[in-house]
Design brief:
Molybdenum Cofactor Biosythetic Enzyme, Chain A, 7 strands, 18% strand
Length: 202
């Protein structure tokens, strides 16, 4: 399959796309936003990659967990979508999120393992312009402290235009654990991606 960008036709649009934006963060979001106002810059999307989820046969628990975590850190704009484990559909959904300008952070969940249907990393590489490997590397490194199975993750992270795309695991528990590993770097990363703020050395 081509390594270039995938635009995707209207018929390939993700199933169950939901915009859950609100004017105020939930949970401890207000407190988190007060601590670091750069969190208000983040406009996020969660893309769940799951054959059963896209067919309505499985509840999207990992996507819900990631939305909860994002809102908990003060992100008020979080969109959701589900696509099956199809490389072209994943790439098309990622491209739409990044190119339409509504979000600057996309977290995918699912499809990063070794099975023949796990193609989220390949779809991500199809659409990114530049790599941002530190996020995926950090999640693998820190996860290795808990389980050797972390070596089985093929997750990628990179940039498409002004959007950061990060592959997360497929289970809610692993999503929560690995999100905590990258949470602190997200506000400053998005700030720099938007060409805002000052020197990184603070």
């Amino acid at each position: 399959m081509s390594g270039g960008r995938s635009g995707g036709a209207d018929g390939d649009r993700p199933q169950h796309s939901v915009d859950r934006s609100s004017s105020a963060a939930r949970g401890d979001g207000a407190e988190g936003a007060a601590v670091d106002p750069r969190r208000a810059l983040i406009r996020a999307a969660v893309l769940t990659v799951s054959d059963k989820g896209a067919a309505g046969l499985r509840e999207d628990q990992s996507g819900a967990a990631l939305e909860e975590l994002l809102r908990g850190m003060g992100v008020t704009h979080v969109e959701r979508a589900i696509v099956p484990d199809e490389r072209e559909q994943i790439a098309a959904a990622l491209s739409r999120f990044a190119d339409q300008g509504g979000v600057n952070l996309v977290l995918t969940t699912g499809g990063t393992g070794f099975t023949s249907r796990d193609v989220t990393p390949e779809a991500t590489l199809d659409v990114i312009d530049r790599g941002a490997p530190g996020f995926a590397e950090a999640m693998r490194l820190l996860s290795l402290q808990k389980t050797p199975h972390a070596m089985l993750s093929r997750a990628q992270s990179g940039l498409r235009g002004r959007t950061l795309i990060i592959n997360m695991p497929g289970s809610p528990r692993a999503c929560r654990e690995q999100f905590e590993m990258i949470r602190a770097a997200l506000p400053h990363g998005i700030e720099k991606l938007l060409d805002q703020g000052g020197d990184c050395a603070r």
